[in-house]
């Protein structure tokens, strides 16, 4: 059975890209793997795409490193173009399709800044905290380090919440920046921390309510479910 499948969307553009994804995602199908923002962006712009499912063993093979220098997922192939890093892939999709970046040059520049902020400012504080919280519980430094990383995280969330205020999206209309930021914030869902930030929690829920998000989520969950049956 082929490990490549086609995910349809409403508008067909050729050549259709192929993205690599986990054959069995370690997140248990919760949509936290790095292919999720790429899937979401493709669904938002109506671009059909193919999926190549990779086992952890296949990710270590030289053939995969030719597409992804760090042996991770996702990679993105479209004709002669090969990309890696989910943020760069989302940027490429947004630049080559309408709807995910503003037409106005100033607003577009601000939106790009928020894309970087999601991955370079907000996500590191989340990953630092969740790494200690989930994986270092038996270490002697756990309590002290957890307190420090939580303090740093809350500072960033305070700042993000203050900026968002009662805005619906980060910069006017929905954009690629919201895709990346919401995917980053979803990493906190199991911690309950977002419950103390009503506007951030509502922001995430608005993103999850979008039809394109639901299609992307269902598609990645279907891959995990199929692998779990084998």
Automatic annotation (TrEMBL):
InterPro entries: Glutathione-S-Trfase_C-like, Glutathione-S-Trfase_C_sf, Glutathione_S-Trfase, Glutathione_S-Trfase_N, GST_C, Thioredoxin-like_sf
Matching Pfam families: GST_C, GST_N
Any one GO molecular-function label of the UniProt entry: transferase activity
Domain GST C-terminal, chain residue ranges per copy: 104-230
Keywords: Transferase
Residue ranges of domain GST N-terminal in the record: 22-101
Family matches, as PROSITE patterns: GST_CTER (PS50405), GST_NTER (PS50404)
Keyword Nucleus carried by entry: no
Kinase is among the record's keywords: no
Family to which the UniProt record says this protein belongs: Belongs to the GST superfamily.
UniProt protein name: Glutathione S-transferase
Organism per entry: Agrobacterium fabrum
Source organism phylogeny: Bacteria, Pseudomonadati, Pseudomonadota, Alphaproteobacteria, Hyphomicrobiales
């Amino acid at each position: 059975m082929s490990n490549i499948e086609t995910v349809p969307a409403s508008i067909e553009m050729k050549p259709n890209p192929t993205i690599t994804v986990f054959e069995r995602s370690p997140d248990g199908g919760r949509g936290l793997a790095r292919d999720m923002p790429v899937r979401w962006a493709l669904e938002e712009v109506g671009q059909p795409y193919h999926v190549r499912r990779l086992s952890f063993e296949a990710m270590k093979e030289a053939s995969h490193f030719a597409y992804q220098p760090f042996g991770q997922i996702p990679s993105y192939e479209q004709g002669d173009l090969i990309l890696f890093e989910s943020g760069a892939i989302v940027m490429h999709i947004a630049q080559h399709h309408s709807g995910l970046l503003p037409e106005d040059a100033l607003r577009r520049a601000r939106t790009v800044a928020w894309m970087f902020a999601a991955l370079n400012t907000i996500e590191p504080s989340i990953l630092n905290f969740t790494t200690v919280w989930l994986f270092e519980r038996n270490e002697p430094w756990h309590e002290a380090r957890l307190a420090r990383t939580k303090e740093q995280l809350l500072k960033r969330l305070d700042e993000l919440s203050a900026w968002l205020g009662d805005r619906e999206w980060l910069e006017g209309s929905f954009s690629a920046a919201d895709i990346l930021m919401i995917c980053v914030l979803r990493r906190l869902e199991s911690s309950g921390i977002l419950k103390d930030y009503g506007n951030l929690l509502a922001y995430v829920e608005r993103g999850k309510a979008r039809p394109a998000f639901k299609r992307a989520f269902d598609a990645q969950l279907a891959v995990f479910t199929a692998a779990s049956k084998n």
